[in-house]
Design goal:
Elements: H1 5-8, H2 11-22, E1 25-26, H3 27-37, H4 46-58, E2 62-69, E3 72-79, H5 81-105
Antiparallel strand pairs: 1-3, 2-3
């Protein structure tokens, strides 16, 4: 996707959705999953990902678990109970937004 500004407002929802589907994930794993699922169209940079992860953690939506992997410490992120509830809300919000954009962009497909 040429214009990364288009998805930046949805980054938190993307992160929450992935964690809801995969349990716990570490940062690089999240970036690679997004890249794979979108066939390279969306590529989340570390500079965008980690501030979002820290913000979601500060809001009480994520827990962090540190594990030693190959003699390195790795941070795994997982949803809290509040995060699980918020994920449902955020996905619904994004779906409504997409439907509204669809109505504007291609009214013939709107119902």
């Amino acid at each position: 996707m040429a214009n990364s500004k288009l998805y930046k407002g949805s980054l938190n929802t993307i992160i929450l959705k992935l964690l809801s589907e995969h349990g716990k994930m570490y940062g690089y794993e999240i970036t690679q999953k997004v890249k794979a699922l979108t066939k390279g169209e969306l590529q989340i940079t570390e500079g965008a990902l980690y501030p979002s992860l820290h913000k979601l953690e500060a809001e009480g939506l994520l827990d962090v678990e540190v594990a030693k992997v190959d003699n390195r410490l790795r941070k795994y992120y997982k949803l809290t109970e509040k995060g699980t509830t918020e994920t449902v809300h955020k996905i619904s919000e994004l779906e409504q937004y997409i439907a509204t954009l669809q109505a504007l962009i291609n009214p013939k497909l709107s119902y």
